[in-house]
Amino acid sequence: MWSITLPETIAIGLSLVPTALTAAIHAPQAHLAARDESEQLPGFPHPNPTKSYWQDPPHRIANLRTTPELPTDQAFDYVIIGSGVTGAATAMKLLQRDSELSILMLEARTAASGASGRNGGHCKTGDWKKVKSWIEEYGEDEALKVGKMEQDCVDDMANFVRTYNVSSGWQDVETADLYWTKEAFDKAVDILEFQLELQERRPDDVPQGNPRTVYAGKAARDYWKWPELLGAITYQGHTQNPYLTVSAMLEISLAMGLNLQTNTMALQLDQVSSYSGNSTQWKVKTNRGTVKGNKVVLATNGYTPALHPGFKSTGFITPSRAQVAAVHPEADTSENPVFRRSASHADSPGGGDYIIARQPGDIHAGDLVYGGGKAFSPSSEDNITDDSVVNEAIAKYLHNIGRPVYGVENWGETTEVVADWTGIICKTPDELPMVGAVPGEDGLWASVCMNGHGMAWAFRSAEALVEMMTEGKAPEWFPQPFRVERAWKTLQ
Questions:
Q1: Confidence (pLDDT) at 20
Q2: Is residue 472 part of a domain?
Q3: Which domain does 395 fall in, by range?
Q4: How far is it between the farthest Cα atoms of the chain?
Q5: I want to staple 205 with a disulfide (CB 3.0 to 4.6 A). Which of 144, 312, 466, 477 is the partner?
Q6: Can you give the pLDDT at residue 363?
């Protein structure tokens, strides 16, 4: 549960490689030439994205095609579009319930090559600070479900990594929400105190097992060692190579019979009438042919409006480009505790920045992965789906912010730039995901728009989606504010 400690002042790879993979077909890079039909389509995944820091080197399933030819003759139980954390978790959870299911997964590029393989490496709760607005909008019961689900999802991710011995550099680290302005810090402390009051009244309904500690003023600077801080609220988070975590989920599903087709872009969805002897309800046109499925799952995040005109017509979801840099400070960081932590700081100059430190024992130990900087883009990078380039103004900011943030004594005088990359996220006006049945389209399901917070929303959202599809109803813990149909209400 929440608690508060006030110091002196306050105002993978898997350990077992599935044998099924040994017979799988790895599609050659030459297949990219077959994508000319979809390369120029606006809103769809770009064929040549920036090289993600996490995807170097590529995973062994990066270009996997379980069958060398696209299985156009078979009617699958499920066709899942997208191989990020949402698609991977959905496939895995379906097959863990029923290993006899036939599931086809379509990925426009290489496996886990979207936002899940291109983010900043955090897995932490961060949206807890919105609890007051959630209560005002949805009422206390539903707001508490949202807050608890965030922590439960992060805990589920940690349990997955440990249960399957996933080698993705997973680290339990101290993390913090850090503040540069007194106004933002005071507001955060007020919200935390409100959370404590909720805990007293409803101890079973609040997030569990991750207490917060508040540091104010000099206490924050002394503890966190960042020279310009006005406040810090610390708790436990995690860092990881997200690409390897998601690839592990895919490998588990492949061992249970998943058919993964990489570099196969879904271009169009068509619902077809059932007829005697064939219950197929959907056809999915791709750049390699048309496949069939009884149910289709959209795990397409920021690319959803391009594929599904109905989602686009709501105006409810906005694709947006996010940018990250990996840098290396001049100073030796191996014995400095300040480089054992991760952090988010919403009121920083870049707006919504976050940072993780690669831990001792990690590949690239000592690197700092820094994301954010959207304040330096006039458009905030919204309505962009091209992740083949970086925004140079944002890159300059991300390269240079580390030294003033950490202080020259911790950082040194120079910075080595290791990598820059971008990825496409999806935003909604209420900053919550969209999970469930697509209205008026029987057999079409979606779990999309994680609002850049997929590692704290997607795994549990996939669990809820699977229960909806197999049991006919959502689990009791699933928040009503996540429902897909809310987007269509904006048209009424």
A1: 37
A2: yes
A3: 23-179+241-492
A4: 74
A5: 144
A6: 86
Q: How far apart are alpha carbons 284 and 290 in whole angstroms? A: 5
Q: Rounded to the nearest 10 degrees, what angle do helices 85-97 and 454-471 cross at?
A: 40
Exposed e or buried b for every residue in 366-375, given b needs 16+ CB within 10 A?
A: bbbbbbbbbb
354, two tokens: 């976050």
Read off the DSSP letter of residue 38.
H
- Tokens 């699933």 belong to 478
pLDDT digits over 251-294, tens only? 999 999 999 999 999 999 999 976 555 566 999 999 999 999 99
Contact partners, residue 353, CB within 8 Å, separation at least 6: 344, 345, 346, 370, 371, 372, 373, 401
- Give the span between the Cα atoms of 180 and 203, in whole angstroms: 32
pLDDT for 35 equals 43
Cβ distance 65 to 27 under 8 Å?
yes
Phi-psi region of 301 (alpha: psi -120 to 50; beta: other; left: phi over 0): left
Spatial distance between the Cα atoms of 160 and 459, rounded to a whole number of angstroms: 10
% of the chain at pLDDT higher than 70 = 90
Inter-residue contact 296 to 66 (CB < 8 Å)? no
**Could you read off the pLDDT of 210-262 as tens digits, one per residue?**
999 999 999 999 999 999 999 999 999 999 999 999 999 999 999 999 999 99
Of 432, 378, 457, 369, which is closest to residue 54 (Cα–Cα)?
A: 369
Rg (CA), the chain: 22
pLDDT 10s digits, 106-128:
999 999 999 999 999 999 999 98
In a domain, 4, yes or no: no
Q: CA-to-CA distance for 162 and 168, rounded, in angstroms?
A: 10
According to the 3-state scheme, what is the secondary structure of 349-379? Answer: CCCCEEEEECCCCCCCCCCEEEECCHHHCCC
Question: Cα(339)–Cα(344) distance, rounded to whole angstroms?
Answer: 14
Q: Is 117 helix (H, G, I), strand (E, B) or coil?
A: helix
Looking at residue 66, the DSSP 8-state letter turns out to be S
Between CA 52 and CA 350 the distance in angstroms is 21
Instruction: Take residue 214 and report the two structure tokens written for it.
Output: 């508040």
Task: Note the pTM of the prediction, 2 decimals.
Answer: 0.92
Distance (Å, whole) CA 314 – CA 331: 50
Q: Does the residue 234 lie in any domain?
A: no
Is 403 a residue whose pLDDT tops 50? Answer: yes
Please, what sign has the CA dihedral across residues 470, 472, 478, 483? positive
Closest-CA residue to 374 (of 357, 349, 356): 349
- Render pLDDT for 164-179 as a digit per residue (tens, 0 to 9): 999 999 999 999 999 9
Q: Tokens representing 235?
A: 């708790």
Distance CA 149, CA 217 (A): 32
Domain annotation covers residue 221? no
Q: How many domains does the chain have?
A: 1
User: Can you tell me the distance from the alpha carbon of 31 to that of 44, in angstroms, rounded to the nearest whole number?
Assistant: 18
Domain CATH for 100: 3.50.50.60
